[in-house]
Amino acid sequence: MNPTLDAIFVATILIHSHIGFQAVITDYIPQWRMPTARKTFDWLLNLATLLVGIGFYEYETNDVGLCEGVKRVWRAGSVNDATIGKVDINTLGHDGKLKHLKE
Questions:
Q1: Is 12:67 a contact under the CB 8 Å cutoff?
Q2: I need a surface site. Which of 9, 50, 55, 80 has the fewest CB within 10 A?
Q3: Positive or negative, the Cα torsion across 65, 80, 83, 86?
Q4: pLDDT tens string 16-60
Q5: Phi/psi of residue 86, nearest 5 degrees
């Protein structure tokens, strides 16, 4: 769809998640009681945020992007989609694969 809109959504999700998890760390790991654990969790949160940011970047540049991905998940199963969505149990073979798909 729109790379600018995707970038805004990704930035919002990253900032929102980081601030939320930072609040959890602040609430449940008091610095006066466990200073080493607190510093460790703060750095782990920073590392996790960086890794998720890299993952979002890869998804945006090498795949369909956030908006298109959400759109595809939202519409999965409503149009002739054999891989995602509702599957009739009677169409499954003994190995769990759909019978009518060619390999």
A1: no
A2: 80
A3: positive
A4: 999 999 999 999 999 999 999 999 999 999 999 999 999 999 999
A5: -80, 130
**Residue in the block written with tokens 């006066």:** 32
Q: How many CB atoms lie within 10 A of CB 44?
A: 12
Residue 20 · residue 28 · CB < 8 Å = no
Place of tokens 């750095």: 43
Q: What's the mean pLDDT when you consider all of the chain?
A: 84
Give, in degrees to the nearest 5, the angle at Cα 69 between 58 and 92: 115
Could you tell me which residues come within 8 angstroms of residue 37 by beta carbon, excluding any fewer than 6 positions away?
Answer: 29
Task: Give the predicted TM-score (pTM) of the model.
Answer: 0.70
Contact 76, 68 (CB under 8 A): no
3-state secondary structure of 66: helix
Q: What's the token pair of residue 59? A: 């998804």
